[in-house]
Amino acid sequence: MLIKTVALKKEYKIGDNTVKAVNGVDLQVEAGEFISIMGPSGCGKSTLLHLIGGLDKATSGQVYVNDVELSSMNDTALSKFRCCEIGFVFQKFNLINEMTVKENIVTPILISGRKINDEYINGLIEALGLKDRLDHTPLQLSGGQQQRVAIARALANDPALILCDEPTGNLDKKNSEEVISLLDTIHENYKKTIMMVTHDKSIADHADELYVMEDGTIQ
Questions:
Q1: Which residue among 73, 89, 150, 205 has its CA within the 20 to 30 Å range from the CA of 128?
Q2: What 3-state class would DSSP assign to 146?
Q3: Residue 124 contacts by C-beta under 8 Å, 6 or more apart in sequence?
Q4: Residues of the chain with pLDDT under 50
Q5: What pLDDT does residue 219 have?
Q6: Distance CA 152, CA 113 (A)
């Protein structure tokens, strides 16, 4: 079991009101699965993804990734775990504009203190069609190309889990189809576990299994 959540909750206080963004989610995802989560805006799907990725802390309940309970780690250990074991792909590409494509891709490796595996990285670059763009900066790329770089960066440390938060949300139909096709290829060729949040049913249908969230719970 790669991902397991137990009675997972995330609550926020807004004035005198309590917002239950995630409300008692029990979820299990096997290694190698590709799952998507859909639901209306504000249903808690992105919050759930951030809790599983260790980007946010739960109000109560547990998150296990690769049998590691995230709340058991201090901030330093959690940061290292995220960097090495989880790759993130966001709607906003979050690339560093002052860096080249190649520098953006290998940043997680440098942060983790690992040695760059040139054969693996060059394979990623080839698979994602970025070979001719390595010396460009993000501002010299199209939106679709920037998301390719973000995907390569997410895979740089060869993590067990890839979390995608609306990965096609900023792209037109053509680029959206190209990006989801790349995620399909990564799932198949690199045997990665992928959890994707999306509002687009046609994108969600590429996953092995589709979950629907409503009012902080999985239906």
A1: 205
A2: helix
A3: 105, 152, 155, 156
A4: none
A5: 83
A6: 18
Residue 41: per-residue pLDDT: 87
Give the pLDDT of residue 137.
97
Domain covering 3-218 assigned CATH 3.40.50.150 in the classification: no
Which residues in 51-84 are b (16+ Cβ under 10 Å) and which e? bbbbbbebbebebbbbeeebeeeeeeebeebbbb
Alpha helices in the chain (DSSP H): 45-52, 75-85, 101-112, 118-127, 143-155, 173-190, 201-204
Q: Where are the alpha helices (DSSP H) in 86-141?
A: 101-112, 118-127
pLDDT for the residue numbered 1: 85
Cβ atoms of residues 101 and 141 within 8 Å: yes
DSSP for 125-139?
Answer: HHHTT-GGGTTS-GG
| Residues in contact with 57: Cβ distance below 8 Å, sequence separation at least 6, in sequence order | 51, 71
Q: What are 34-51's pLDDT values in tens digits?
A: 999 999 888 999 999 999
Distances (CA, A) of 84 to 37, 63, 110, 154, 199: 24, 17, 11, 10, 28
Burial 120-155 (b: 16+ CB within 10 A, else e): ebeebbebbebeebeeebbeebeebbbbbbbbbbbb
pTM, entire model: 0.94
Q: Can you give the residue ranges of every domain in the chain?
A: 3-218
